[in-house]
């Protein structure tokens, strides 16, 4: 079987410039999908580049609303977007370290997405870690039976995506579409995460990568050079498209 091509988006001097460009293209991509289907299933990510992209997405939505009469711009119909999260830190609702809290502050509180369209992971006050994973897997099966449309991903210096780290059981032998993660290499130790199988149900996977510490991992993604689960991000592949967004510092080791 041939290896799917990774399309590189580069030439950005900074993380913020990358985030602006990714947000603009995301608006165009979602609006295009909404012309032909009733709902768009979007998976959000945390991390510096991911949250910066969400902030710019909110800004573009605000700008489009203000210019609607004088100079119409493309604008997402948020009532027709279903929001999922790639992973979550298993912390109390509203904790500032939770991805959904950060996404609320950056984007979701500023656009007209209905609360019932946002699918969040359980928290310690209402669920065990295993139950939270099981419940979210069922949500994914019910709300995204054919997979996601676009999955945004951040990436760590060692190539981790969501809460899937190199050589871990959750990466190598997922039990379901969502996995309970214990003893995570980064704090907090307990998390819930979409499995790699779930990531790869997405039509489009967008990796948002910035900083020199991630240059080697970005190159591994571009080359699809995974060896024995060493670089998890290199295993992420959209069914139709895989985009690797890199700023100048993260692009220094990309193949010519």
TrEMBL record:
UniProt pathway: Carbohydrate degradation; pentose phosphate pathway; D-ribulose 5-phosphate from D-glucose 6-phosphate (oxidative stage): step 2/3
One term of GO molecular function: 6-phosphogluconolactonase activity
Record GO biological process: carbohydrate metabolic process; pentose-phosphate shunt
Reaction(s) catalysed (UniProt annotation): 6-phospho-D-glucono-1,5-lactone + H2O = 6-phospho-D-gluconate + H(+)
Domain Glucosamine/galactosamine-6-phosphate isomerase: 14-245
Keywords: Hydrolase
EC number(s) from the headed UniProt entry: 3.1.1.31
InterPro entries: 6-phosphogluconolactonase_DevB, 6PGL, Glc/Gal-6P_isomerase, NagB/RpiA_transferase-like
Entry annotated with the keyword Heme: no
Enzyme class name: hydrolase
NCBIfam families: pgl
Family of this protein: Belongs to the glucosamine/galactosamine-6-phosphate isomerase family. 6-phosphogluconolactonase subfamily.
Function of the molecule: Hydrolysis of 6-phosphogluconolactone to 6-phosphogluconate.
Full protein name: 6-phosphogluconolactonase
Source organism: Corynebacterium resistens (strain DSM 45100 / JCM 12819 / GTC 2026 / SICGH 158)
């Amino acid at each position: 079987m041939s290896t799917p091509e990774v399309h590189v988006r580069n030439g950005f001097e900074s993380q913020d410039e990358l985030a602006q460009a990714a947000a603009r293209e995301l608006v165009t991509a979602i609006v295009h999908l909404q012309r032909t289907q009733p709902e768009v299933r979007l998976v959000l990510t945390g991390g510096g580049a991911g949250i910066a992209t969400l902030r710019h997405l909110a800004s573009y939505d605000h700008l489009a609303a203000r210019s609607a009469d004088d100079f119409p711009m493309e604008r997402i119909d948020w009532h027709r977007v279903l929001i999922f999260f790639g992973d979550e830190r298993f912390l109390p609702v509203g904790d500032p370290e939770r991805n959904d809290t950060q996404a609320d502050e950056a984007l979701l509180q500023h656009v007209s997405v209905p609360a019932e369209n946002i699918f969040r992971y359980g928290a310690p006050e209402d669920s065990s870690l295993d139950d939270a994973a099981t419940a979210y897997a069922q949500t994914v099966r019910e709300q995204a039976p054919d997979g996601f449309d676009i999955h945004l991903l951040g990436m760590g210096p060692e190539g981790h995506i969501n809460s899937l780290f190199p050589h871990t059981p959750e990466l190598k032998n997922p039990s379901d579409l969502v996995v309970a993660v214990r003893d995570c290499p980064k704090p907090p130790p307990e998390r819930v995460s979409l499995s790699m199988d779930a990531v790869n149900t997405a039509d489009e996977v967008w990796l948002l990568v910035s900083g020199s510490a991630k240059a080697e991992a970005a190159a591994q993604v571009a080359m699809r050079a995974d060896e024995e689960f060493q670089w998890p991000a290199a295993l992420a592949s959209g069914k139709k498209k895989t985009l690797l967004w890199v700023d100048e510092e993260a692009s220094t080791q990309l193949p010519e």
